[in-house]
UniProtKB/TrEMBL annotation:
This is IS2 transposase TnpB. InterPro entries: Integrase_cat-core, RNaseH-like_sf, RNaseH_sf, Transpos_IS3. Residues 43-207 form the Integrase catalytic domain. PROSITE patterns: INTEGRASE. PANTHER family: BLR2054 PROTEIN, LOW CALCIUM RESPONSE LOCUS PROTEIN T. It holds the Pfam family rve_3. GO terms for molecular function: nucleic acid binding. SUPFAM superfamilies: Ribonuclease H-like. One of its GO terms (biological process) is DNA integration.
Amino acid sequence: MLQAAGWKVNPKRIYRLWRREGLKVPRKQKKKRALGTGANACHRHRPERKNHVWCCDFIFDRTETGTTLKWLSIIDEYTRECLALKVDRHITSEDVINVLAELFRTHGVPEHFRSDNGSEFLSKAIRSWLKQIGVGTLYIEPGSPWENGYAESFHSRVRDEFMNCEVFENLRSARRQTEAWKQHYNEVRPHSSLGYLTPRQFSQQCISSSRTTSAFQRNTAVTQKFS
């Protein structure tokens, strides 16, 4: 990060200073777990290019007064870019469709959409809508969140780097704080698996696999009832 900011640094000197000050970052122990046998698991159906596979999931937290808040995240698995991070008190399948519709307009239509078996993703409305547009659905096995590994990894970052560091006064402040963190994640925070580029930088270097939006445009009427 120092190098990205234009500083010339000597890694060995940084290490010596870090050690002299007694600073440590506990090394996380990887948990051994089954990868799962589901055909739609992330280790079986891997993203190969931008807009090849998007994944979606929910994560929860509370305001300082105890009100439950629900976040919807949508990630491009290949670029790791957070395409959407919507927070509200309640999020329905209709809300998911509206968020996806806007993303399809701005980012193109992905080939596949991976999610768990939550009612918001299994509703007849969203399954029919995605089928009409031509987006393949990859539903993971029930009770196997690790099969949606990219979403799980992203949510661990959301929890550690955002939710555990912020106090949400109310929904309005949560939305403001969420948008600021999303921008930082996409445009400032380097990602080790991307060669220490930010997701936005890596995304800009990629050739998108998304098809033309004609299929989506032909079906925009499907979303109008949710607008």
